[in-house]
Amino acid sequence: xxxxxxxxxxxxxxxxxxxxxxxxxxxxxxxxxxxxxxxxxxxxxxxxxxxxxxxxxxxxxxxxxxxxxxxxxxxxxxxxxxxxxxxxxxxxxxxxxxxxxxxxxxxxxxxxxxxxxxxxxxxxxxxxxxxxxxxxxxxxxxxxxxxxxxxxxxxxxxxxxxxxxxxxxxxxxxxxxxxxxxxxxxxxxxxxxxxxxxxxxxxxxxxxxxxxxxxxxxxxxxxxxxxxxxxxxxxxxxxxxxxxxxxxxxxxxxxxxxxxxxxxxxxxxxxxxxxxxxxxxxxxxxxxxxxxxxxxxxxxxxxxxxxxxxxxxxxxxxxxxxxxxxxxxxxxxxxxxxxxxxxxxxxxxxxxxxxxxxxxxxxxxxxxxxxxxxxxxxxxxxxxxxxxxxxxxxxxxxxxxxxxxxxxxxxxxxxxxxxxxx
Length: 422
Description:
Elements: H1 2-36, E1 44-47, E2 53-56, E3 62-65, E4 72-76, H2 82-90, E5 95-96, H3 103-116, H4 118-126, H5 131-148, E6 155-159, H6 167-173, E7 178-183, H7 186-195, H8 208-229, E8 234-238, H9 239-244, H10 246-257, H11 287-290, H12 308-312, H13 314-317, H14 320-323, H15 340-351, H16 353-421
Parallel strand pairs: 4-6, 4-7, 5-6, 7-8
Antiparallel strand pairs: 1-2, 2-3
Membrane topology: Single-pass type II membrane protein
Enzyme class: transferase
Protein name: Protein-tyrosine sulfotransferase
């Protein structure tokens, strides 16, 4: 039994190692492909040098991109305002963020896992897969994903919340990149994660206490990395303040990013779904909220849902709350005063509740239609494949049968001719 268990473990380790090496080879191949081979798909890419590429839009305007450009990364805990932030930036005519890629944080997570295993690191180096090879491959892959998963723009931006868990590493790959670290009251974030059933590895969606502890760990990690890369590269953006005073914070954010002011950033809802505006994914959980103008509805929704024992032990469970300046003693907390525009938006949404409800229903309907279209396409694809396989099988069977019959016929004719001759 021991030998069988050991051999099973060895096989699993071998498979994991093969998968690891396969991914590395894929990334290196991707780097080679993106550097030396032409691309015929839109948006069109033109090779300029080993470090510089061009994207061309539908009007043939050229947009250079390379790893030294000032990329923007938006991150933080999910349900902390990352979608609102990227929608505001997407509304700016010079910026394109687009939907979450999902693949970038996963690759960064794998890179982190490789680094944690001294044995695996040694094996990689022995195979000639140095840190530089991996860094070059990853930076090329990440850059291509960011550049090509949406329309070209002078400033490119990525919003995958957990990318900021690798902020220091990314800062090394992209030396001129800047980071917007979205921070929200952890209790509000946890309530939103639980109520919207957002699946996050390690989070028990039935337990507020453990979720708040996990929030504390994740935010502490990103907070330390933000401090490490420094205030010239990382800006902490508090969701509550962005919602209360969008004009002030939007101006500060654009100044930090070296992007000229444009009124569109405080009217992002007017650019939803428009060309060059804000593109929303059917799968992102916040799309039903960012279709509305900035308002106060979500600020204190969570208050009545926090269990009494979690309220009592908040300081112990999540010390980062006080460190970030949040009031843990009052329910609801006082976050500050709202700008007149935000108060007007909030009142307007309440007055037109039926209109916004219908708009949300239409959004849900569109989401369902999108799901059904995908299911339909998958089903048709499956049936076409099954049909092709069946036809292939029948043709093969027919050819085999005909071959057998021809052989039998020839043999029979041979016997008859022989019998006739004798």
